[in-house]
Amino acid sequence: MRTIKAAAAAALLSLPFLPLPSAAEAATTPPMGWSSRSLGCSVSEQSVRQAADALAPLAPLGYRYVIIDDCWLAAQRAGGALAPDAARFPGGIAALAGYVHGKGLKLGLSLSAGTKACSGGGPGSYKSEAADAAQVRAWGVDYVKYDWCSIPTADFPGKNVQQIAQALYPPMRQALGPDVVFAMNNEDGSTVPWLWGKDAGATTWRTNVYNRPIADSYATMVDLWETNQLRAEYAGRGSWADPDLIQAGRGGMTETEYRTQFTLWAMGAAPLILQAAPAQAPASVVANPKVIAVDQDPLGAHGTLVRSDGWYHVLAKPLAGGDRAVALFNESDRAAVVSTRLGGRHRVEDLWSGAVTSTTDELAAQVPAHAALLYRVSKSREQAPPVVTFEADPPRFLGDDRPSTLEPGVTGELVTRVTNTGATARLRDVEVTAQAPEGWRVEARTPARTSRLDGGESFTVTWAVTAPAPGTYEVTFRYGDRTATAVVLVAKALGSGRTYLSDLAWTRATNYFGPVEKDTSNGERAAGDGRPLTIEGVTYAKGLGTHAPADIEFYTGGRCTAVEFQAGIDDEVGAAGSAGFEVWADGGRVAYSGLLTGAMPARKVTAPIEGARFVRLVATNGGDNATSDHADFADATITCK
Questions:
Q1: Band of pLDDT at residue 18, cut at 50, 70 and 90
Q2: Residue 511: domain span
Q3: CATH number of the domain that residue 71 is part of
Q4: Rounded alpha-carbon distances, angstroms, from residue 135 to 78, 127, 480
Q5: Which of 100, 221, 391, 534 is geometrically suited to a Cys-Cys bond with 107, CB 3.0 to 4.6 A?
Q6: Does residue 13 lie in a domain region?
Q7: Is residue 8 part of a domain?
Q8: Secondary structure (3-state) at 529
Q9: What residues does the Glycosyl hydrolase family 98 putative carbohydrate-binding module domain cover (predicted)?
Q10: How far apart are CA 421 and CA 339, in angstroms?
């Protein structure tokens, strides 16, 4: 994967270097840059200089701010003034600001509205707002992230958290003046900053409702995006909704998922602040000038949902000059077609691939799992090929998020479909080919070529597919320069009779802490650290140990009739913990234990699963929290024909 520095040399040579705008001017578009948050208290003057060196090639795209997130302060003030930690920043902040400015960048620091900094020790700015603001301005600081830590709530009798925040944030904003970007980082949802942040002069305000940074995971990222969308009406030019940092390059998501975050953040006119070291952030995600232009569009609009069908979302964002940005987002675990109506003839540019097509009205595409496609659409009669929807293995029903399933050596079917969606011209010589993993057999059961495809028409090919061995695989289909991929699960059918589930392979499993354990309790976070399954003094030799919430899926192929187990909270957490135990057969819940706690004996659960292709064992966290929820599926068995 290319680094930012390499990509900048390759892709940005034609971009003119732009003079640094003032902070007031920069606030007209969402801030972009890098934060030291991942470094924690290992941050240093040297690491910040290295980050500035790596970020500088992207300054022409808008990446301006090098932000030190905590751990830069000395433990005590010097003569009443803020002072940097002498070990971490021996040269001082003013010299560091000069170095950053010399790279064509700007420097940011974190401060706290309370009595202490959030991390690393050091004083907060409570009752020292004017002096601290003057100090950081004198150092040449261009950006202040104002945190919400060590708040002296006792000093505000009769006031709620929102009222306290509204008393503490404006004084720092006013003291900093308009030439310093003010990032209001009161991420405790009870302060509801979206209701008053703009009036308080905040350049950005956090939109999540729990007091911790974003995790580098797809599920967390989507949760924060959904929360951010709820604040869309409050955001606008000069005061931006901030759903937190860009994760690309940290390693917890796939490149597709990182591209999805970047797309969704751009549609929300969100700050684009990198958390990974700039040299590690993939240029294929963070250095696309056309996607960045959507985020930085002068109109400053926050994109809104046109429609949402649970897993599948369409967002639109008006752009300066009359164009629109449209994003098609597939939140589910399986590729699916997502579509929208544009209303009349349009030019359609895919901002990630660069492809330009045209449509008389509809925009549709098969969107891979966890992916978001981004388009710039404009009213135009430009001669361009029609929008084509090329899909492989379409879902069987709305919300179907499982891959198609085959059994080893048993021939099944996959379907591909080409649709002339744009209908601005006839497609000719449409041919679809297949490429499968080694050892597979894939043959077209219906013709794989047609001489023409008129507007609105579809061409469907049915393929006979035989896979040799269990696992999860991809079968790739091609039409011209387009590809569509079917993700296929190959799983063995269960044998007849009664079998312990811990002796079988599951198709997927999720667990709150560590892996699901076979024949032991969950233990702690490491694999294999469980103890004998024990519920209220009764020990079980077989079963599954989890920490709720947990979800374990088995392929049953329609051949099984019942699941049974003893449900309970493991004795290793004492009387603590609570969970509910469920069995799901395909899309419906067929059994529920009721709420069980650590002070209760095991409860037998029997679930009918006749005809189900997939069965899931689910442990919920009991409706409170996940602490101590060590949920045992003891003596868990399945009966098959």
A1: very low
A2: 497-640
A3: 3.20.20.70
A4: 12, 14, 61
A5: 100
A6: no
A7: no
A8: coil
A9: 495-640
A10: 10
What is the distance, to the nearest Å, from the Cα of residue 342 to the centroid of all Cα atoms in its chain? 27
Residues 144-164, mean pLDDT to the nearest whole number: 96
> Of 468, 490, 512, at which residue does a domain stop?
490
Q: Are residues 504 and 589 in the same domain?
A: yes
Domain endpoint, select from 448, 474, 490:
490
CATH number of the structural domain spanning residue 313: 2.60.40.1180
Q: Is 340:307 a contact under the CB 8 Å cutoff?
A: yes
Q: How many domains does the chain have?
A: 4
State yes or no: pLDDT of 25 exceeds 70: no
Buried b (16+ CB within 10 A) or exposed e, 464-486: ebbbeebeebebebbbeebebbb
| Three-state secondary structure call for residue 493 | coil
Distances (CA, A) of 18 to 5, 170, 232: 18, 32, 30
- Within-domain flag for 275: yes
Asked if residue 194 has pLDDT above 50, the reply is yes
Is beta strand 508-511 parallel, antiparallel or unpaired with respect to 181-185? unpaired
Q: Report whether pLDDT(537) > 90.
A: yes
Residue 12 lies in a domain: no
Cα distances from 619 to residues 248, 553, 554, 608, in angstroms, run: 32, 12, 15, 18
pTM of the model: 0.88
